[in-house]
Amino acid sequence: QTRLQVAKGYRSTFHCVQTIYRYENVTGFFKGMSFPLFSIAFYNSLVFGVFNSTQRHISQYRYEDVGHALSLLELTVASAVTGFVSVGIGAPVDLVKIRLQMQMQPLSTANLNLVGGVAGRAVDLPNQRAFRGPIQCIIGILRQNGLLGMYRGARAMILRDIPGYCLYFVPYTQLCRWFTKEGHSAPSPFAVWLAGGMAGAISWGTATPMDVVKSRLQADGVQQNKYRGVLHCIYHSYQTEGIKVFFRGVTLNAVRGFPMSAAMFLGYELSLKAMRGQRREPEL
Question: Is a pLDDT exceeding 60 seen at residue 207?
Answer without folding.
Answer: yes
